Amino acid sequence: MRADRIDKTPAALRVTPNWPATAEARAAFSWEAEAKGLTGLPGGGLNLAFEAVDRHAAGPLREHVALRLLFRDGCRREVSYGELARLTSRFAGALAGLGVKPGARLFVLCNRGLELYLGVLGGLKAGCVVSPLFSAFGPEPLETRLRLGEGAVLLTSESLYRRKVAAIRDQLPLLKQVLLFDDNGGKVQIPGTHDLRQLMDQAGDDFPVAPTSADSPSLLHFTSGTTGTPKGALHVHGAALTHLVTARYALDLHPDDVFWCTADPGWVTGTSYGILAPLLLGVTSVVDCADFDAVRWYGILRSEKVSVWYTAPTAIRLLIKVGDELARAHKYPALRFVASVGEPLDPEAVWWGQEVLGLPIHDNWWQTETGGIMLANTAAMAIKPGSMGQPLPGIEAAIVHRREDGSLEMLGDEAIGELALRQPWPGMFRAYLGQEERYRRCFAGDWYLSGDLARRDADGYYWFVGRSDDVIKSAGHLIGPFEVESALLEHPAVAEAAVIGKPDPILGETVKAFVSLKGDFTASAELHDGLLAHARRRLGAAVAPKELDILPSLPRTRSGKLMRRLLKARELGLPEGDTSTLENPT
Amino acid sequence: MDDAQLRREVLTALQGIAPEVEPATLRGDRPLRDEVDLDSMDWLRFLAALHQRLGVNIPEADYQQLTTLNVLLAYLQRRLAAG
């Protein structure tokens, strides 16, 4: 039988971990001392992109590789910190040339590629509030987010624009400027848009970084709740300190590391750790522009000499499914630290890392709202497979019960409750855009309430138990059932729609929909496919249901509330629980 | 199996995963996953469906080269011919 913990021997640690994981180190930790790792703007203030790029470009890291882009066709391109500073300045200059003012909302809808980095970093330099969008979203989630976020500028590729944005452009009167690039390097000629490359050619190599401060808004990340519209979590430039500290301590990044974060750029991990954190520490990031492919991934780990790898449970489970033979066909002598985030990593997967890659996988936990990693199995710590680890230095966590009067009861070891974090910390979100009440509800006194249920064991390790709401987590991405249901309800045949997360061995959960039909429609295979097609066209493949059942009616409470919980119990063949409030208990 | 027949089979498998696909507008020389909105799971399900429909085993090592519809059709035709 496997042990319930993986201890670290000095021999297993190839470099001395940045975080010693001792009580003494924790007591000595202070954010003030860590803040010395940031430079600050020459004239005072703080700007994420200046810290990530420009300060390195002005020093000994000027020629150091910041990004190593691996294109789909097998070509590659290395971009030094010096070049990245020049190119992001040109991007910022292009924005200024269009009259875009600091504070304007810039949305970035890009697959992995250089333009993504120029958009996010150049936008931050220009003082824009940057909002990355998931390129697998369909037109409807894109329209919702651009509208809620009052997007004034959009950067995207010509093909994504044609496929997903052109049709919704009329519904976005606030969207003034659209910057496009051709994936094949050609010129873009679409009325009402600008050719990014042409604009950048006209801009200069130097751009005065916008005089932002630690409290200036920087990034806007949309996330989903059970009900209502997506929530735009607003972050500030001061989050640089959380990114820096967590990359150093949770990911154990050292100056000569080659780091690979596989997260999609449209989600918060792809921005915080795919873009910002490694650059803040001046390390080299591998950027793979292709989709997941097991052979390709093992090849990248080997030939790019990746030393620190940050990936996700779904990717790990896909690799496991392919079989160990492929993994064992290669050796990965440079690889020394592997971490995972997105959803709890099952013990099997942690052990797979140990046995097949020769390195255990370090699970960690955080959310869009927290801005960076909060709990982690760190390099110096013993790993408890299945646990998300312990609070990082500077972070105080607790398991709490929210009483009816809003006060909190602090729970002891092994009790299941809501995972809470004591505020503030530098990277925490500062608002849900335009939804102040919703933001306030996330806090009770000094504590931020995560909505995740967890328990803490006697050794101080935290274990994920579940969500306290109906939000679906598929491939580590949060999907709000309401958004999917709304799209289904727009189909003329649909009377009612309910969406649940169905457990899936690879994705964690997949989106499963239940609908009932309006009177004049009858269920058929054709209608079933038509409904799925409708949902996929509007929502995109990553959000649309993978399965759909047509039912005579959906269970509701007497007050009319959809009982997703009951549908889920029926789907899983579980006891249905309390159905006393059901409208028609049959 | 002739080319037209193979194309029909492939498109039927594709529509099983992505029923919104309109074969007439599909450009065979463009990356399939740009032409059709397929996430990683859709892609793997599609390849599994091809395996089941055609009885052709597609090794993991070949996944990367299957970029466009035309390339995929030629690949499957070769595999079918090789028995």
What does this 3D model show about the protein?
The complex is a heterodimer of chains A (586) and B (83). Chain A contains 18 helices and 28 strands. Chain A is α/β, with parallel strands linked by helices and 586 residues long. Chain A folds into two domains: 11-15 and 34-395 and 435-448, 3-Layer(aba) Sandwich (Rossmann fold); 472-572, ANL, C-terminal domain (GMP Synthetase, Chain A, domain 3). In chain A, the strands form six sheets. A nine-stranded mixed sheet of chain A has the order 2-1-11-10-12-13-14-15-16. In chain A, helix 3 (48-57) packs across helix 5 (114-125), helix 3 packs parallel to helix 10 and helix 9 (240-249) packs across helix 10. The longest helix of chain A has 17 residues, at 81-97. The two termini of chain A are 46 Å apart. Chain B is mostly helical. Chain B has one domain: Non-ribosomal Peptide Synthetase Peptidyl Carrier Protein, Chain A, CATH 1.10.1200. Chain B has helices at 3-17, 32-35, 40-54, 69-81. In chain B, helix 1 packs across helix 3. The chains are: A alpha/beta (586), B mainly alpha (83). The A-B interface holds A 72, 136, 138, 159, 163, 290-296, 314, 318, 322-323, 326, 475, 506-507, 510, 529-530, 532-534, 536-537, 540-542, 546 and B 15, 18-20, 31, 33-34, 37-44, 60-61, 63-64, 67.
Summarize the structure.
With 586 residues, chain A is α/β, with parallel strands linked by helices. In chain A, α4 (81-97) packs across α5 (114-125).
CATH architecture of chain B: Orthogonal Bundle
Number of domains of chain B: 1
Rg calc of chain B: 12 Å
Radius of gyration of chain A: 24 Å
Binned, the helix content of chain A reads 25-40%
- The number of E-state strands of chain A comes to 28
Pfam family, one (chain A): AMP-binding
EC number (chain A): 6.2.1.1
Protein name (chain A): acetate--CoA ligase
Domain AMP-binding enzyme C-terminal (chain A): 483-561
